[in-house]
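Before relying on records like the one below, remember that each one covers exactly one chain. Contacts with other chains, cofactors or solvent are not represented anywhere in the record.
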Amino acid sequence: MDNPSIKNEDQYVALRDQGYSKEKAARIANAPEAGKKGGKAKPYEERSKTEIYQLAKDVGIKGRSKMDKQELIEALRNN
């Protein structure tokens, strides 16, 4: 595919194959932690609101400044 705007091309293709939209697959594949081995990240509930907010900002969740920690977590999980 060779799309220079996608950081993790393999992850992008796998997500598209799973039915993710182009936009959502690109957001996930371009996240700062894209391509790192999974399973080692702390659950959202164990992170600070500031960390959760930054993750929401990185993936472009709208309205995040008005959300509390739990709302941010739900938005990240449903994004």
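DSSP finds four helices and no strands in the chain.
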